[in-house]
Amino acid sequence: MSKKSALGKGMEGLLPTGFDVGAVASPGEKVQQLDVSKIYPNESQPRKTFDSEALKELSQSIAEHGVIQPLIVGARKGSGKHEIIAGERRWRASKLAGLKTVPAIVRDTKEQQKLEIAIIENVQRVDLTPLEEAMSIYKLKHEFSLSLQEIAKKLGKASTTISNTMRLLQLTKRAKEALMNNEITEGHARALLSLTDVEQQDILLNTIITHNLSVREAEQAAKNIKAVKTEKLTPAAHKAPFTISKDTKQSLAGVSKKLATQLSFNASKSQLLITVENENTLKDILNKLDRD
């Protein structure tokens, strides 16, 4: 295949790989150089932790090539300072690289728009941890009254994916810590959530970590745990009831007369019941059975 000229691709051919075209200034906006010391993180920013090694690598790239993609910031009225809407990772890396100024687009947005832009950038470009993303979705849903369908559309994901991600907040404290510390994956977390009993979740969590189970193995283990619980709750559910013949009934009556107590058979539960009035009666029955 022949190699096309960059100019033949139009403007996209002139943009560096990974450049976010959505960050290009809209009409009336312009990219300007802002003092890094007068830029502050957005309190609504969903990302709370940043990988130090990744920041170091980005700072080295910025030191060599500069900040290719502008930050998006909002002006703090009357302070001469700006709040980051999108691009905190680039801002932190720029500070590490020793830059005094960074390119930025000053944009006047409402609180909801700030959070939405911050979440969308992180989810689509940097990736929040699963729990950070779940918290972000929760905030959009409950603080800004957005439906899961609306959130899914904004993030470019299926509604079921958004719903499953938010369910991660239902994990136990121990499971959340394991997920944050990369002891388990999001797939393992979903297997845990298939169990409604908290104790069973913790048992499965310990099994996953101790035996280094794959997601598929964890899912099977969860099914096995649920099957055991179901069997304990309904022990006769898997046993087909049966009837006893006339001869067997006569034999049962004979044993009942010999033991001087009432014997009855419950076909639905497959149980043979012995009626005992007191401890002495029980002892007599046991002695008779022992002699036989």
Question: In short, what is this structure?
Answer:
The protein has 292 residues and is an alpha/beta fold. Among the domains are: 28-115, Conserved hypothetical protein from pyrococcus furiosus pfu- 392566-001, ParB domain; 172-233, Arc Repressor Mutant, subunit A, CATH 1.10.10.2830; 246-291, no CATH class.
Q: How does this model look, in words?
A:
The protein is of the alpha/beta class and 292 residues long. Among the domains are: 28-115, Alpha-Beta Complex (Conserved hypothetical protein from pyrococcus furiosus pfu- 392566-001, ParB domain), CATH 3.90.1530.30; 172-233, Arc Repressor Mutant, subunit A, CATH 1.10.10.2830; 246-291, no CATH class. 50% of the residues lie in helices and 11% in strands. Strands 1-5-3-4-2 form a 5-stranded mixed beta sheet. The chain has a two-stranded antiparallel sheet with strand order 6-7. The longest helix is centred in the C-terminal third of the chain and has 19 residues, at 215-233. It is rod-shaped, with a radius of gyration of 33 Å. The termini are far apart. Residues 1-24 have low confidence and may be disordered.
Can you lay out the helices and strands and say which pair or pack?
Layout: E1 31-35, E2 39-40, H1 52-65, E3 71-76, E4 81-86, H2 88-96, E5 101-106, H3 111-126, H4 130-143, H5 148-155, H6 159-166, H7 173-180, H8 186-193, H9 198-211, H10 215-233, H11 246-259, E6 263-266, E7 271-274, H12 279-291
Parallel strand pairs: 2-4, 3-5
Antiparallel strand pairs: 1-5, 3-4, 6-7
